[in-house]
Amino acid sequence: MKVFVQRLIDDKVGLFGLIGILLVVLLALLAPLIAPYKPDTMFTEHVLEGPSSQFLFGTDEFGRDIFSRIIYGAQVSLQVGLIAVGIGAIGGLILGLISGYFQGKVDQVIMRVMDVFFAFPDILLALTIIAVLGPNLTNTMIAIGIVFMPVFTRLVRSAVMTVKENEYITNAQAIGVRPSLIIVRHITPNIMAPFIVQITLALSGAILTEAALSFLGLGVQPPNPSWGVMLNDARTYMEFAPWTILFPAVAIVMTIFCFNLLGDSLRDLLDPKLKQ
Amino acid sequence: MYAYIIRRLLMLVPVLFGVSVVIFFTLRIIPGDVAQTILGTDATKESLAQLRKDFGLDRPVIEQYITWMSGVLMGDFGESMTTGREVLPDILNRFKITFELTILSAILSWIIAIPLGVIAGIKRNTKTDFTVRIVSLLGVSIPNFALATVLILILALTFSYSPPVGYVGFFEDPIRNLQIMLLPSIVLGTAMAGAVMRMTRSSILEILRQDFIRTIRAKGAKERLVIFNHALRNAMIPILTIIGMQIGVLLGGTVIIEQIFSLPGLGQLVLTSINQRDFTVIQGAILFIAFVFVLVNLLVDILYSYLDPRITYK
């Protein structure tokens, strides 16, 4: 573990990503302390004002402070990212473990169902689920979680099938250790490397999908300060108030960029082929 | 090979059947009365009952599914609940636009991504490589809707240019058509270029390390020949995988881009029908997209064996 952390610190690109993510997390956690105003406070006499010392990133069409809304928006993005990926990762882990370990008919059924989900482009599947559940924050997280589940299932299944062939597993099976114990104690810890890399990459994907859905008006609903909602709202005024679009766009891009940097770096560190 | 293609085509049947089941029954879970949503709160009881009768909404769900599926198998996707138009011709007409957008974006991204990926791979750990890597990662990280809006903004502020409104078919007026499609294609192509660039770079790196490359170099082959005739051809397999996946992503990604640039493509049709709760259009369009999606994946698999004769399918 120590070696791993040291290598991560040595890898400047990954470290940059990690620092960026920690900054976003800090912003989200300390939002009430950092943000000068509440995200929904309207300053009606300061509508669409450019950046100033009073409003660092300017104000939007309702006179709300864009800087404060971006900081609170980080809460929404991270919340969606963590919960949606949590749903996808845990669901995928359970299904992948069962599928990969037991194989046979169970595996066939699970994987054929996953094939069906793989036949949908991500955003369309999310849109369909939202159409059924209705657009709001919770349903957005559920929809994204379901969309991500097949990727995790496939990844875990193939990792389990590789690990299962190791002698320590066949030994454990031979002395009669219960399958549930083998899965939890011996298999799960050994498939964590690709699983963690996928989580990091899925986090950026989830934040991106949430922003896209909210941009289309089918994700987080106004007046919640989602970056996607802010971007969509700003389209009407962007030509004479470009700050309304630039700052939320930079926030989305930088956050996803940092997650991708860290994901890339982790993949390089945890992939034995690339270590050589 | 043919046996493999036929088997793969047959395997599409259960997948598409699964998609049809998922989409049909998922839409039926939607709470509330669809007829009421479509006709509005002012609708009379009679008109509501008529709509339910016309679209079979008053019959058991299983029966509705069987009727729909039998129609689909005969090439009849039913009629739109809101416009009354035939669904399949509408889908096909709109798919032409989405298809053009996808192909243009893909071509644009390959022109940029493959050469840059190769250069980054050859010049590993140099400034060029570092720049290409950062640019490609940025390409992957910029959401297409953010790029589209910022690009429109920059063009409006610096050149007072706004994207042309209204769609014109390629065969009607090719120049006008390309003017309309250029900006959306650049936006969609950027994200794909990032992913393809990354894959090209890592595949080239992997191939250049292999023994056969060393042998070819030892024989005195020109470096250009080594790269283009041997390394790139072998590196194309993973690149193709990502291209296949990206084309699928593009098909879905057009939903947002078509909305921003007011292109009447398939994505916009899906979005409008979702907002209007037009079941027949949603299920027809999504089944069609899924069909194209799995077909593209199959095509990629077949292309593998063309590029690498070592891959044989049984």
From TrEMBL, chain A:
<dbReference type="InterPro" id="IPR035906">
    <property type="entry name" value="MetI-like_sf"/>
</dbReference>
<dbReference type="GO" id="GO:0055085">
    <property type="term" value="P:transmembrane transport"/>
</dbReference>
<feature type="transmembrane region" description="Helical">
    <location>
        <begin position="12"/>
        <end position="35"/>
    </location>
</feature>
<keyword id="KW-0813">Transport</keyword>
<dbReference type="InterPro" id="IPR025966">
    <property type="entry name" value="OppC_N"/>
</dbReference>
<feature type="transmembrane region" description="Helical">
    <location>
        <begin position="240"/>
        <end position="263"/>
    </location>
</feature>
<keyword id="KW-0472">Membrane</keyword>
<feature type="transmembrane region" description="Helical">
    <location>
        <begin position="140"/>
        <end position="156"/>
    </location>
</feature>
<feature type="domain" description="ABC transmembrane type-1">
    <location>
        <begin position="74"/>
        <end position="263"/>
    </location>
</feature>
<dbReference type="Pfam" id="PF12911">
    <property type="entry name" value="OppC_N"/>
</dbReference>
<dbReference type="GO" id="GO:0005886">
    <property type="term" value="C:plasma membrane"/>
</dbReference>
<dbReference type="Pfam" id="PF00528">
    <property type="entry name" value="BPD_transp_1"/>
</dbReference>
<comment type="similarity">
    <text>Belongs to the binding-protein-dependent transport system permease family.</text>
</comment>
<dbReference type="InterPro" id="IPR000515">
    <property type="entry name" value="MetI-like"/>
</dbReference>
<dbReference type="InterPro" id="IPR050366">
    <property type="entry name" value="BP-dependent_transpt_permease"/>
</dbReference>
<feature type="transmembrane region" description="Helical">
    <location>
        <begin position="82"/>
        <end position="102"/>
    </location>
</feature>
<feature type="transmembrane region" description="Helical">
    <location>
        <begin position="195"/>
        <end position="220"/>
    </location>
</feature>
<keyword id="KW-1003">Cell membrane</keyword>
<protein>
    <submittedName>
        <fullName>Peptide/nickel transport system permease protein</fullName>
    </submittedName>
</protein>
<feature type="transmembrane region" description="Helical">
    <location>
        <begin position="114"/>
        <end position="134"/>
    </location>
</feature>
<keyword id="KW-0812">Transmembrane</keyword>
<keyword id="KW-1133">Transmembrane helix</keyword>
From TrEMBL, chain B:
<feature type="transmembrane region" description="Helical">
    <location>
        <begin position="9"/>
        <end position="30"/>
    </location>
</feature>
<dbReference type="InterPro" id="IPR045621">
    <property type="entry name" value="BPD_transp_1_N"/>
</dbReference>
<dbReference type="GO" id="GO:0055085">
    <property type="term" value="P:transmembrane transport"/>
</dbReference>
<dbReference type="InterPro" id="IPR035906">
    <property type="entry name" value="MetI-like_sf"/>
</dbReference>
<comment type="similarity">
    <text>Belongs to the binding-protein-dependent transport system permease family.</text>
</comment>
<feature type="domain" description="ABC transmembrane type-1">
    <location>
        <begin position="95"/>
        <end position="304"/>
    </location>
</feature>
<dbReference type="Pfam" id="PF00528">
    <property type="entry name" value="BPD_transp_1"/>
</dbReference>
<keyword id="KW-1133">Transmembrane helix</keyword>
<feature type="transmembrane region" description="Helical">
    <location>
        <begin position="178"/>
        <end position="197"/>
    </location>
</feature>
<keyword id="KW-0812">Transmembrane</keyword>
<dbReference type="Pfam" id="PF19300">
    <property type="entry name" value="BPD_transp_1_N"/>
</dbReference>
<feature type="transmembrane region" description="Helical">
    <location>
        <begin position="281"/>
        <end position="304"/>
    </location>
</feature>
<protein>
    <submittedName>
        <fullName>Peptide/nickel transport system permease protein</fullName>
    </submittedName>
</protein>
<dbReference type="InterPro" id="IPR000515">
    <property type="entry name" value="MetI-like"/>
</dbReference>
<feature type="transmembrane region" description="Helical">
    <location>
        <begin position="134"/>
        <end position="158"/>
    </location>
</feature>
<dbReference type="GO" id="GO:0005886">
    <property type="term" value="C:plasma membrane"/>
</dbReference>
<feature type="transmembrane region" description="Helical">
    <location>
        <begin position="239"/>
        <end position="261"/>
    </location>
</feature>
<keyword id="KW-1003">Cell membrane</keyword>
<keyword id="KW-0472">Membrane</keyword>
<keyword id="KW-0813">Transport</keyword>
<feature type="transmembrane region" description="Helical">
    <location>
        <begin position="101"/>
        <end position="122"/>
    </location>
</feature>
